[in-house]
Write a sequence for this structure.
């Protein structure tokens, strides 16, 4: 069993010091640009170099996030930014953009690439593709389950998140912030609309339907290590130092115990920011948060509330007892009441409390404990009955003492091993060092003093005295493995000169260690050539899951057919996919399309875990035996046709996906971005733009309703604070939900401009729309002649918006 690397989030230099001292074996951070947390403090280039140097001295690796989509006009700046990161010794970069992967392979082939979770690499096909591109590590989606990870086969390192916030959507597959607030998660500026309250049509109350409680796999580290996961990752570059200190130090302690076969528990990690905890999709045990902010450690339930005091029946397993100055949160349904404990609370037994004899107990391991908390007049009054409320401990004052201790410790998880040799050369002291780093590199150096040894006037300096001075480590994270003293103890030199010799050696060692990671800097020129695009035949594509559209549609080159869930419910039989339903649906579609003037393409779900891939390939095999052949739209990175969820934002991404005939560019791009892409596009016939239809705002593996509420009859709409109704549909996968925008994206006013730029493939999304929706194709064809039929368009698509264009 391999103990995984512990990867900690770092949002500033102060956070870096804390992460190192708390026991991180690697950290991830971001520059001021190109990182998925733009609103964190983040680092300048000079600060990144300082961080890299400091981390390497402590045997801690540094991974820099460059995990946003890169636009065409940013490419040269980004690759030169990466060249600087490589030169300063950055251990790896996290990347989302496929085009950036190609640029790194070409210009910085020795820079290690980690595929960001934003790449949404959820199946073996994608794993194989990334490995073929020389990527060293992949950060798996948080939605991956234990058995799915177990079945992956790859030489790449696998990294998973184990602690912190969860997005409701698959990372890289969320456009909600972009289309609802103009701030793109794929560009690092997510406004977190998932943390707001929404209403589900048919439900009576607003709730945090899109806000999962936080991930916590602390109790499953042994299972994770047995999966050969190389790295476990803690989320939170925008969290406090207290959060970072407590979470990292507890995970480090647990991993150290795991080496000896011991498992750990911790209540401390509940006391720093969390929205409640769950085990996420790893064990398929997710739940949503009950509030937007910190919830703390659940310690018990109010059994009696009076004007002057609260009686709280403590949960028997709780070891952390509230004290004066700590914070409590009382939660009941949608109400909560928080306050700070202002007097020393009393702990008694339930038996004593029921008899009215609140005798304090000393043995805090006893069961059936009751906590008596005095309420004082300074506390605001609760506006609901506190009886039968859940009680959470939100703040523990003595934690700040531990945070301070760790922050000032100046230590690290693994120290470099140092061998020193002291000798005299021509009467001058010489100190040699051989330092072995955690990565097994060896650094050697030597310094000579400028003050000679002399015959003693009174007393010589002994071997032990010299050794004791050499043992002083000052600020350096070295561990003395051996000291050799080649001196007979008969001469004299001031102790201050020995100390200076040691300091000079350590300073030189520090520079040698830092330099051992560095590379020669270089400037990269891309020399892109503008292309005058020739006028090409205009083609329309149409997305649908409605067989009636196939019967009547005309004027399209391609129809992308998606299979709807059977009866808009789960397409499962006894836990397996209903193969007969899928085969018959595709067979019927092929028969309808036979002889039509369009190519029928089967659109596989954008999110397809291996169990679904296996079922779809089985269907494909059955269809082939029946002589029903059909091309595939798949986001496997290695298919024939690709939807916009591939997040294509530049020509390097387009060119890297060699096997694809058609690639749809991201709908998040602006007018200027479309102009830049086509200006340098070698093959415009390969590029498609979505010009009309509802955009998918989120793809998720989380349910919208949990427990008993999931059995309620409700209509499939998510309603936001502006009363906008966003359709919710189930994927054929039976697990994923897709939330669509309420309004249609519409680029009808720009279609002629796009055509003149050189674009020739346009798509319209008609999934889950009425039978006549296909007529929008004819309206767009008219628009290409200059005749924009706005009123006619509104018959079929009454709510339109140009979105980000």
């Amino acid at each position: 069993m391999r103990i995984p690397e512990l990867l900690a989030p770092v949002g500033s230099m102060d956070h870096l010091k804390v992460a190192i001292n708390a026991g991180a074996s690697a950290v991830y951070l971001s520059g001021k640009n190109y990182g998925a947390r733009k609103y964190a403090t983040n680092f300048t280039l000079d600060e990144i170099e300082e961080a890299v140097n400091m981390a390497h001295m402590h045997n801690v690796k540094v991974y820099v996030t460059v995990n946003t989509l890169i636009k065409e006009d940013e490419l040269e700046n980004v690759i030169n930014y990466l060249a600087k990161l490589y030169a300063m010794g950055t251990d790896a970069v996290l990347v989302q953009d496929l085009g950036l992967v190609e640029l790194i392979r070409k210009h910085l082939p020795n820079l290690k690439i980690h595929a960001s979770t934003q790449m949404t690499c959820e199946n073996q096909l994608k794993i194989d593709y990334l490995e073929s591109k020389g990527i060293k590590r992949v950060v798996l989606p948080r939605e991956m389950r234990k058995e799915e990870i177990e079945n992956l086969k790859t030489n790449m390192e696998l990294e998973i998140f184990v602690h912190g916030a969860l997005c409701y959507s698959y990372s890289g597959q969320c456009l909600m912030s972009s289309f609802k607030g103009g701030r793109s998660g794929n560009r690092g500026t997510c406004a977190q609309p998932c943390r707001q309250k929404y209403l589900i049509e048919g439900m009576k109350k607003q709730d945090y339907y899109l806000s999962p409680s936080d991930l916590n796999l602390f109790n499953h580290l042994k299972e994770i290590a047995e999966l050969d996961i190389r790295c476990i990752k803690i989320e939170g570059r925008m969290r406090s130092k207290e959060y970072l200190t407590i979470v990292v130090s507890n995970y480090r302690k647990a991993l150290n115990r795991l080496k000896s076969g011991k498992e750990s528990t911790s209540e401390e990690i509940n006391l720093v920011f969390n929205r409640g905890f769950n085990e996420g999709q790893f064990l398929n045990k997710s739940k949503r948060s009950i509030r937007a902010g910190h919830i703390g450690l659940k310690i018990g339930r109010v059994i009696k509330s009076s004007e002057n005091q609260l009686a709280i029946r403590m949960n028997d397993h709780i070891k952390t007892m509230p004290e004066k100055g700590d914070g409590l949160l009382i939660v009941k349904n949608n109400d909560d009441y928080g306050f700070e404990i202002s007097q020393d609370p009393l702990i008694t037994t339930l038996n004593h409390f029921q008899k009215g004899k609140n005798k304090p107990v000393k043995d805090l391991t006893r069961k059936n404990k009751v906590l008596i908390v005095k309420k004082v007049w300074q506390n605001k009054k609760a506006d609901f009955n506190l009886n039968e409320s859940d009680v959470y401990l939100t703040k523990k004052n003595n934690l700040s003492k531990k945070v301070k201790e760790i922050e000032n410790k100046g230590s690290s998880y693994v120290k470099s091993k140092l061998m020193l040799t002291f000798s005299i050369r021509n009467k001058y002291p010489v100190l040699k060092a051989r330092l072995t780093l955690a990565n097994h590199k060896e650094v050697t150096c030597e310094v000579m003093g400028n003050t000679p040894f002399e015959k003693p006037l009174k007393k010589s300096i002994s071997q032990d005295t010299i050794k004791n001075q050499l043992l002083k480590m000052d600020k350096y994270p070295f561990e003395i493995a051996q000291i050799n003293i080649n001196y007979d103890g008969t001469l004299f030199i001031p102790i201050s000169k020995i100390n200076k010799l040691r300091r000079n050696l350590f300073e030189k060692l520090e520079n040698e260690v830092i330099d051992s990671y560095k590379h020669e800097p270089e400037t990269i020129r891309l020399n892109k050539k503008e292309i005058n695009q020739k006028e090409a035949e205009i083609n329309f594509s149409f997305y649908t899951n409605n067989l009636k559209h196939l019967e009547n549609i005309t004027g399209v080159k391609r129809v992308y057919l998606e299979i709807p869930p059977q009866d808009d419910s789960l397409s499962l039989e006894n836990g397996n996919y209903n193969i007969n339903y899928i085969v018959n649906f595709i067979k019927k579609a092929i028969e309808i399309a036979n002889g039509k003037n369009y190519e029928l393409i089967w659109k596989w779900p954008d999110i397809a875990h291996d169990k679904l891939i296996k079922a779809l390939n089985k269907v494909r095999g059955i269809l082939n035996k029946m002589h029903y052949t059909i091309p595939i739209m798949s986001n496997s990175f290695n298919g024939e046709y690709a939807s916009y969820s591939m997040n294509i934002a530049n020509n390097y991404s387009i060119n890297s996906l060699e096997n694809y005939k058609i690639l749809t560019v991201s709908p998040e791009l602006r007018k200027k971005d479309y102009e830049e892409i086509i200006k340098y596009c070698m093959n415009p016939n390969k590029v498609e733009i979505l010009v009309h239809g509802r955009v998918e705002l989120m793809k998720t593996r989380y349910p919208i309703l949990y427990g008993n509420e999931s059995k309620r009859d409700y209509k499939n709409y998510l309603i936001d604070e502006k009363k906008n109704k966003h359709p919710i549909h189930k994927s054929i996968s039976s697990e994923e939900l897709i939330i669509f925008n309420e309004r249609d994206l519409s680029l009808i006013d720009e279609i002629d401009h796009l055509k003149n730029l050189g674009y020739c493939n346009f798509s319209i999304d008609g999934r889950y729309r009425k039978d006549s929706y296909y007529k929008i194709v004819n309206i767009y064809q008219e628009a290409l002649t200059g005749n924009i039929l706005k009123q006619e368009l509104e018959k079929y698509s009454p709510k339109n918006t140009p979105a980000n264009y």
The domain at 539-704+735-801 is CATH 3.20.20 (TIM Barrel). The radius of gyration is 31 Å. The chain has a mean pLDDT of 93. The chain has four domains: 5-166+213-271, 297-395, 416-517, 539-704+735-801.
